[in-house]
Design a protein that fits this description.
Layout: E1 12-17, E2 24-27, H1 29-36, E3 49-56, E4 60-66, E5 74-76, E6 79-81, H2 84-96, E7 100-107, H3 117-129, E8 136-142, E9 151-157, E10 161-163, E11 165-170
């Protein structure tokens, strides 16, 4: 399935590039709005998160939907775990609509987010224990900064972790 961006769908998106790879990453505006509305702005805000969905082809990975947070998630100031039943329900529902499960997103209580060893271990555990449609997953972390520096996305496979270089694409 090839996904194309229509001018009327959104005004801004994030594009990403991995050094040494030709495939590009696109994250649409509705997805960005969904994940960034959960930024940990206050000193007592807990982490929030969910799943990422979209399409993949040889040229691009398109993230077009984010779900979560869910009732029953485990949320603390510096940790997050999705309700596994709600997450699987979202994966099944969106799969029926033709969208692939692409990975996970969550917030961090830092301006410019960085992945923790817990984040890396969680993603590797998901890769090891899941039937996936690709050889890697995305991990998007939303920090407190409201500009592009407040977002970070990694590509994680069984053997490697790469961080996407992000920029805003204005339409």
């Amino acid at each position: 399935m090839i996904f194309t961006f229509g001018k009327s769908i959104f005004k801004h998106c994030i594009i990403g590039q991995l050094e040494g790879f030709s495939q590009k990453l696109f994250v649409n505006e509705p997805t960005l709005k969904h994940v960034t509305k959960h930024r940990q702005k206050s000193s007592n805000a807990t982490e929030a998160g969910g799943q990422l969905f979209g399409t993949i082809n040889d040229d691009k990975v398109c993230v077009v939907k984010a779900t979560g947070p869910y009732s029953g998630d485990q949320r603390a100031r510096h940790s997050y775990r999705s309700n596994p039943i709600a997450a699987q329900h979202a994966i099944d529902k969106l799969s029926q609509r033709g969208l692939l499960y692409l990975g996970e997103w969550h917030t961090h209580a830092e301006d410019q987010p960085s992945a923790s060893s817990f984040d890396d271990n969680t993603m590797h555990r998901i890769i090891e224990n899941s039937r996936l449609n690709s050889n890697s997953l995305l991990m998007l972390i939303v920090g407190r900064s409201s500009n592009i520096d407040g977002l970070a996305i990694w590509n994680i496979s069984k053997t490697s972790v790469y961080q996407w270089q992000l920029e805003i694409l204005k339409k």
